[in-house]
Amino acid sequence: MSDFTSNFWSVFVTTLTLVGIIACGILLWMAGRKKVMATAENTTGHVWDEDLVEMNNPLPRWWVWLFVITIIFGLGYLAAYPGLGTFTGKLNWTQKGEYEAEMAKAKTEIEPLYARFASMKPEDVAVDPQAHAIGERLFMNNCAQCHGSDARGSKGFPNLADADWLHGGTPEKIRETLEKGRIGNMPPMAAAVGSPEDVRNLSHYVLSLSGSPHDSLRASLGKTKFVACAACHGNDGKGNQALGAPNLTDDIWLHGWGEAAITAMINNGKVNQMPAQADKLTEAQIGVLASYVWGLSNKPAAAR
Amino acid sequence: MKSSDKTPRKVIPIAAAAPEPSAEGELVSLYEAQKKIYPRSISGFFARWRWVMVFLTQFVFYGLPWLEWGQRQMVLFDLGARRFYIFGLVLYPQDFIYLTGLLIISALSLFLFTAVAGRLWCGFACPQTVYTEIFMWIEHKIEGDRSARLRLDAGPWTFEKIRKKFLKQTVWVAVSLWTGFTFVGYFVPIRELGPELLAFAGTWQIFWVFFYSLATYGNAGFLREQVCKYMCPYARFQSAMFDRDTLIVTYDETRGEPRGPRVKTVDYKAKGLGECIDCTLCVQVCPVGIDIRKGLQYECIGCGLCVDACNTVMDKMHYPRGLIRYSTQNGVLHRWSQSQILRHVLRPRVLIYTAVLVALCVGMLASLTTRTPLKVDIVRDRAALSRIVAGGKLENVYRLQIMNATEAAQRYRITASGLDGMEVASEQEVDIGAAESRWVAVRLQIPYGSAAPGSHAIHFDISALESGGKVTEKSIFLVPR
């Protein structure tokens, strides 16, 4: 916007608007005082297309008040709300302010709905039908975009309905994930592993951990290279939830299965992020949502 | 009429007829001051029918929200929950098409009635005229008839005048408030609305009750015919629906003119007079303040009160009735009999309107009665196109919004078909509460490699297990390359 360099357009718009309103008022005042000569046939004397005459039917006087009201309303509106150039209006109304006020109001309105769940154990919230319905709606609106409507994820987005957890599957851990988000960081390891051939061998060893089809010769050659991975994934490859390092032995492949996908991961690494929800959802909502997600893979008999 | 037939009749001065065309050469303002109309009350055939219609329409309007249907209000438009209950029907916003149908039927009915018999709606059923009539009746009961009201308004502010005006305003305000309350009662359960208002709960309810009260008060108490003359578009486009065979309130000019006062004993024909005695009663009873003797005017709402007024005068004069009557322009011109006029009712325009109207009504009724009380919207998951899952299966995920339009909890079975070996991997039966809707995630699987890469048309079948009824919706299944 040219507001940065000059206030010409602000002055231009303000002047044009005010002059326009004043001109409307003057026109109204003049028309109210004007008298015209009446003719017997009640026409203005204007004729078009041979016989189309303009009748001189007066407007009802009360109608004038509607014009007056619009002028008063217009001036009042321009004084209260932004409209005259860069003038912000006496109410200091902004879209952002309105949005924030509405969100704050919505928060206070929904608070009582969640009050009941605050004192309950997360495991009990998971089986509460009302909490389940709320959790389902929250999930559909906030989580399903990435994790899928059925929470079973897809490539790069973890499946939340199985028992495999990157950062821990207790309600408390899930809650932490929701609140603060997570960043999964697999660094590029090619240099630490060695030659491209070493990387291929290591890939086959990783495949062998879960009993996936692999070349056992390459796997045995790659086994020694696994020390580079063991720091995070553990000596047995079962991962480390404190670091977010996935279990490599369970045949669950978040970023793709097979030699090519694993080789690429070792060579290039990957940073995968779960965004924090604390700004978007209230604490109570996150609590219900955490219990809902926990319930997806921990179904007691009662929930079924 | 109290004037004696023997003496030349006393003419009660006309306070407000149509604005007289100004005399030539006179200076006039561009704006016209509203002239208050003091309609004289009259009884007769049309006046009675107007009251029948007032009672019918208002009986329905004021009474309907109080009726119950099962556990709920019979007619309730719950805007908050977005459910619309009409008798046994539960409508969703997705059923808006029925409102469209209703509006088209209303419009066509208006066309049909107008083509056959002019502004029947305006004169007998329009809320504007109906409430104006109720308000005028109150005015008449408290302040007296036309001449008394004229005298009262012209006179000084005596105690009696203040008392009458105050009483009238009080009753008007009471009727307005009740009308506003009733109107809002169609959108908020009316039995809860009263206590809510008394407790000053529900700001918007209070606002709308007062808003509609004010609208009723202003329109029926003050604006009255101004609404019909200047605001209502119907008066302006009615000429498109009128023709020369449309029944309208007409003044028989050939029979009436030249008008003039007369002594009953003298033969008026010998004096060259017509049958109009120029008593101006037709003008005095007119609620829109026009002189019907000037011919068809756009202000005329077709209420027929001038017909009643003129007939009473004709009876007194022992002239035949119908100097002002319901007739057609052709009927008056060719001096057609009643049956000749009726024969011209069946003309192409009327037949076409009727045919379309009947077809629409039948279609709408058929659609409503055969409607499945279940709606389904399908949204395919967008982020993940498809995925390979354990067991050598290819999986697509869908969200089904299942809307239960019955007033009982329902269990629905979800099945899908369109590809070989396709099955629903998620729960196949879902429970949805009465008049509730729910999003359900559904997973469809096919054996890997059983379908060519690309997009495949499939369809879901959702059937209600207890109440019967099935809905089929289309979607697609994506197979990756």
Helix-strand blueprint:
The complex is a heterodimer of chains A (304) and B (481).
Chain A: H1 8-33, E1 35-37, E2 43-48, E3 52-55, E4 59-60, H2 61-80, H3 95-118, H4 122-127, H5 129-142, H6 144-147, H7 171-180, E5 182-186, H8 190-193, H9 196-209, H10 216-222, H11 227-233, H12 259-268, E6 270-274, H13 283-297
Antiparallel strand pairs in A: 2-3, 5-6
Helix pairs in contact in A: 1-2, 3-13, 5-13, 7-13, 9-10, 9-12
Chain B: E1 27-29, E2 31-32, H1 45-63, E3 68-69, E4 72-73, E5 75-78, E6 83-86, E7 89-91, H2 96-117, H3 120-125, H4 127-143, H5 146-154, H6 159-184, H7 190-198, H8 203-223, H9 225-231, H10 234-237, E8 248-251, H11 253-256, H12 281-284, H13 305-317, E9 324-327, H14 329-334, H15 338-343, H16 348-369, E10 374-380, E11 387-389, E12 393-404, E13 410-417, E14 423-424, E15 429-432, E16 437-447, E17 454-464, E18 470-479
Antiparallel strand pairs in B: 3-4, 5-6, 6-7, 8-9, 10-12, 11-12, 12-16, 13-15, 13-17, 14-16, 17-18
Helix pairs in contact in B: 1-4, 2-16, 4-6, 4-8, 6-8
